[in-house]
Amino acid sequence: MEELQDAIEDAQYVNEIAQQDDGPRPVLPWKKPTEEELEIWKQLKKKESKDAFTTEWTMQEEIGLFLFSSYLKETHDDYARINFCEEVYRFRKYGVQGRSGLKRAKSIIKQFLVALERDPVTDEVVMPRRSLVFEHDLKRPTSIGIPEDQRQKLYAENMDFPACSECAVGLKGVIRREIVEKVQNIEDLYRSSKNKSSLQESATAISPIHDSKKLLNANITSTRNIGFDDGTDITETSTGNGLHRDLFDNGESLVMESLKCDYWRSFLESPKYKRLLGFLWFRDRPVEPDDFFEMRRLGRGGFGLVTACKKGTSGKLYAMKVMNKRRIKMKKSEQLAINERHALASVESKFVVNLKYSFHSKDDVFLILDLMTGGDLGFHLHQKGRFPKREVLYYSARIMLALQALHDKQYVYRDLKPENCLLAEDGRVKITDLGLATKITPKLHGAAGTRGYWAPEMLRRDSRGKRMNYTHTVDWFSFGCCLAEFISGSNPFRSEVALNYGLEKGQQTKEKAIDFAIMEMDPEFPPEKFEPDAADLCQQLLRKDEKKRLGYNGCSEIMSHPYFKNINWEAIISDKEIPPFIPAKDVNAATQSEIGNFVEDKKYQETILTEEDEEHYKDWDWTNPRAFAAEVIEFLIYERTTGEPLLPPKHEACCCGIM
Which UniProt key words apply to this protein (predicted)? Predict the structure, then answer.
């Protein structure tokens, strides 16, 4: 009977995954605030920020921009100015590097900032095309454009909408001219280059940028390359004649001011504004277990289960990690749980499983995470034996950037292994389970993680027998173990060779033998499985001396290794690289009977939670604003596409059990 129930839940889980592509399928309505609740919330927001509910504040919310844009286009059919603003935000979001940056800048100018063309037949002015927002993360950046105390004077001198004959958005004068001339100068510089080499030499003479470290940090440095399709590079600096993310900001500031003058008051009285307030209120309310519906078990941790779940209001699928407070107390692991929660909220990376919500009940703490339906790399490695080189390169590149994202936030991961690398349904890999992640401190010591992936410095002791301190370098050793395992199918320190090495050296147990091999053995990388570059990379990552280990100075050292010479790092970093393997749309996990449940033994029953225990979780609750915005905007886009309000079925029960 239990097997039948598991089979039914498996089928429901696979069906839910398959239907995600069809759009949101909510099972709960969005709760609406009463007038009193809304007023209390508004007063709290005003205490948090004096700018709350202003135009600028609203446009810096993804949902705010989406609904204001929808209001203009649906209610007034006025789209040119807001479309210009949206294109400026995309220009800033996607950056200005390369031919694509120049192409995007020229497209914005052609559509919005030059004299409008006329239809040769009707002689009517041809307006720019009308576009809609489809992104869930498009918003107005903070502190964009002209300061408010200067805006009114420049507005009078540089805006004339709708009478301006110079462009579709009414921008004129020196601000418009500076934008057009700036882009034209870059275009002329490109066109006037007689040959590729002379232009490259000129650019390099200004500021050579060729190594992978600068590519990795391109989004935060003040000097960038503009690379063209033929390989030509034009260096862009903060003082030179280059493109910048703020190229259109002054123009956008005035155009947004014109929209504010024309429409803001009427928007505040519209149903869309009321709906915006309702969504933002809902985001700030406490999240509850009943907001989610549990589905199939996916795994089991030290303190509880990981299950698939559905968010009732949006129909979005997530993974729910439930940790029992009594089990946490039994193992004195409150700080480990809190560390995981803080690390997940701190590291927002496309290479790390992201935290969407955290909340707690009387008995449990909850983490709502990305649902990775493709299974873990340990599961797929077991099925395949070893990964083809294309998969090795792709997985290791993304894992490397995930580790660097943690290191950039001063965290060390400490638990890298194939089982903690999960595939999404499209084949993109992310690392998960930050339960052992911790801040890097001068006194960090002690073995943590999974035996066989530990770095030697985790096991070393000083002359007094005390554990020695370590830093982020332990992650690069674990990375070397995983890389070798991806290539050969075997971790060099969890092999028969390593076990026998330790036993022959007098170690009495399997565990001590593996630890001894990590400390003393130099693994071999046979040429039938490891090409020369792969062997050299693994050797450098698995150096016993962490100061000589590749990665000691950051992942740019690893990125520059010849093994990765054919990697398109720009595509990997921007998440545009197409995954080499797409997992089957199936249950890519162990059976539920294999995962099992926890036994509530005598020790568990005798563990009592006190008010002091509850203090550990006083700051646990959190909502990821970007995740919430993504849910709402996906929901709104579906309504816009169908032309009907998206409501949960009146009498249809959810396929999942309510917690």
Answer: ATP-binding, Kinase, Nucleotide-binding, Receptor, Serine/threonine-protein kinase, Transferase
